[in-house]
Every structure is written in structure tokens, then in C-alpha cells.
Amino acid sequence: MRDFAYARAGTAESVVGTLADPGTSVIAGGTELLNWFRLGIAAADNVVDIGGLDDLRGIARDGDDLRIGALATLNEIGEHPLVTQAAGALASACLQAASAQIRNRATIGGNVLQRTRCPYFRAEEPLPWPCNKRDPGSGCISLAGRHERQAIFGWTQDCVAVQPSDPAVALAMLDARADVLGPAGPRTIPMREFHLTQREAADAGQPMRETRLEPGELITGYRVPASAEGQAYVKVRERASYEYAIVSAAAAVRLDQNRPDQNRLDQNRPDRNRIAAARVALGSVAQRPWRLTLAEAELPGTPLTREALIPVIERAMADAAPLPQNGFKVTMARNAAVRALLTAGGAS
Ligand SMILES: Cc1cc2nc3c(=O)[nH]c(=O)nc-3n(C[C@H](O)[C@H](O)[C@H](O)COP(=O)(O)OP(=O)(O)OC[C@H]3O[C@@H](n4cnc5c(N)ncnc54)[C@H](O)[C@@H]3O)c2cc1C
């Protein structure tokens, strides 16, 4: 661990100024950054603590949106009544992340910038194997080694890692936007485009780029459209808590029941429980949350039953390209998507 200078930020604008220096890092909760320093994934001469910036705090209704400050912790978001009522998938994703202690510290601004859990990438320096993320041009040992937890969409020969954030999947599914402040002023990034697959990054000529955040930009908060749809976040993992997802799925469903109490399941008339509109995204299957847009186009009119949903999701996942060891993730992700849709619609 190298020494670094520590300073508390006075304003968001002043942070953006200091971030222009590549030797400066922002710290929020520190649950990722300090691990990177320890492992040798990152190093900085100056660390600027943004924890005292009140403008980046808070959760409030703003017109049709929920405005969630970048410094809101995962526990604050998961337990906030506005979020549980109008963005339930996000609340659930936050509460299923990490452990209670980490959720009290981990911010939603830092969460979407967390790096992959690929064990080859997370090794302590000096790295005993090639990893293009750690040492560009050295190769990807995971392709020839273990890759059962890696991507089934959007990977390249350069890297097969996945983005492990739970909240990012819900934010992408809910069409949230990140408010960002940078040297060129404020701008907005749609969360379904915030992360890049390896294929998208390579096509843009920056194979190791992971997000659309530019150097020097600060996330100030998120705008999440408030929704009356039923919502769910399903996380499949090796143990019930304090564990990253193998795969996950976030869904929102509005039922078409032609009656005033729409979106409530009619147990006696299953034929009436048809989907009017639905959104669904997968997590831990690519280096970005994976919206199943083909399924979203096909789901209106589909009965809310497992039998009817499976072929729709399978068609939407037909372009999955699993690696030799992770074909099981295709089936697991399909089942997670179906379960998230059934739960969001009230049928499970
Ligand atoms: C043991 C463990 C288990 C975990 N399990 C899960 C899990 O199951 N699911 C899950 O989703 N996550 C999980 N996490 C990840 C955790 O949620 C993130 O580490 C946390 O949210 C990061 O937020 P932070 O405030 O601590 O970020 P920091 O560590 O402070 O910063 C992380 C990065 O983000 C940058 N950054 C922070 N805030 C901003 C901002 N506002 N604008 C621009 N850049 C910023 C920093 O410069 C740094 O590069 C786990 C973490 C640990 C340590």
C-alpha cells in the first residue's frame, strides 16, 4: 500500500477541478477504492473525500422522478419508503448486495463503478498471470483457465469479465439516468448505456474501457422514473447473503386486466393475467446490465405463466455466447428472468 495525501472536498465543482489530475482519486465509502490500493489495482498520490458534500446526499421526489444522491448508501436506498414504493427492484437490489455493515458504508455512486470480481483480476501484485485489465496487452488467463462465472454476452478474446453490481441492473431496467458533473459542465448518462461490454469498448477503440464516465467526471446522483408497476429483483448466488450474484434479473410488470385494480393478480381467472407492459434486465452475464429488449417487445399480451414466459425469454437470449465452462449461466439467467417477471406480476 503506497502513501497518499488525503483531503476533504469543499464543493463538487472543486472536486471536478482536482480530478483533472490523473494522480487524484475520489473516495466515497472507500469499500472498493482501498481494496484496489491494497491489491495494486489502482494507486493515487492524492485522495479527495467527497463524503461531506451535502449536495450529493438525500433521496427525494422530484416531479415524476426519484432523485437519489450519489452518496446515498445502499441501506438508505433499500429502506427508504419512496424507493420501496416507486422503485422496488432497486430497493431490493440494494438490500441483497454485500453485508449489512458494508451496505451502511457503500454508496450508490461508488457501487456502479466497482470493478469485476474476476479472481485473476483481483489478485495481489505482482500479478502472477496475464490480465489485460491490469496489464494491457498481456492477455486474458481466464479464457484458458477458470471462467465459469464470466460473461455470456459481449465478451472478447481480450476479457471475459462481468460487472457484478446489483443496483446497476435495477437502475438499467428502470431507465434511470446518472447526473454527472465534469470539466465541461453537467450532463446525463442513461444507466442502460452507462457500462460498456468488451465488444462495445473494442469497437470504440478503447478495449479496456468499462463505462461512459469521462476522466474527471463526478456522479452527483441518479434520476429514477417513479413507477407504479410491480417490480422484483432476483439474485442467484451460492449462499443467501454476503455473496455476489452468479446471475440476477430485475423486472417490472404491468398487468392487463381491464379493471380498476390493475396490476393485482386474479387467482381465479389466470386467463385474465396477461402482461400489458414489462421490462427486464439480467445481471452478471456481461460487463454491463443486459436488457432483454426483444422480450420486452414480445411480452405485451403474454400470459403471466412460467410456460408462456420461458420461450419469450429464450428467444431474447438466443444470441448468448457462453464459454466452455459457463453454459449453465444461460439456463440460470433465463430462469431468473422468468422468476423476476412472475414475482413482479404477483404470480410467485
Ligand atoms: C465484501 C464486499 C462484498 C460486496 N458485495 C456486493 C454485492 O453483493 N453486490 C454489489 O452490488 N456490490 C457489492 N459490493 C460492492 C460495494 O457495494 C461497493 O464496493 C460500494 O458500493 C462502492 O461504493 P463506495 O462508496 O465504497 O466506493 P469507493 O470505494 O469510495 O469508490 C469506488 C470507485 O468509485 C469512485 N467514486 C465513488 N463515488 C463517486 C462519485 N460520486 N462520482 C465518481 N466517482 C466516484 C471512486 O473514485 C472509486 O474509483 C461488495 C463490496 C465488498 C467489499
Distinct small-molecule ligands in the complex: flavin-adenine dinucleotide
Strand order of the largest sheet: 4-5-8-6-7
Shape label: globular
Number of strands: 12
Output the helix-strand order: EHEHEEEHHHHHHHEEHHEEEEEHHH
Enumerate the spans where pLDDT stays under 50 for 5 or more consecutive residues.
none
Structural class: alpha+beta
The value of Rg in angstroms is 20 Å
Describe this structure in words.
This protein is α+β, with helices and mostly antiparallel strands and 348 residues long. The chain is 28% helix and 20% strand. It is built from 14 helices and twelve strands. The chain has helices spanning 12-19, 33-39, 74-79, 81-86, 88-95, 100-103, 108-111, 141-144, 167-173, 191-194, 198-203, 293-298, 306-316, 328-344, and strands at 5-8, 24-27, 46-49, 59-62, 65-69, 177-182, 185-190, 218-225, 230-236, 247-256, 274-283, 290-291. A five-stranded antiparallel sheet has the order 4-5-8-6-7. Strands 9-10-11-12 form a four-stranded antiparallel sheet. β11 and β12 form a beta hairpin. α5 packs antiparallel against α9 (167-173) and α13 (306-316) packs across α14. The chain is globular, with a radius of gyration of 20 Å. The termini are far apart. The model has no long low-confidence stretch (mean pLDDT 95). The structure holds flavin-adenine dinucleotide. Flavin-adenine dinucleotide binds next to β2, α7 and β8.
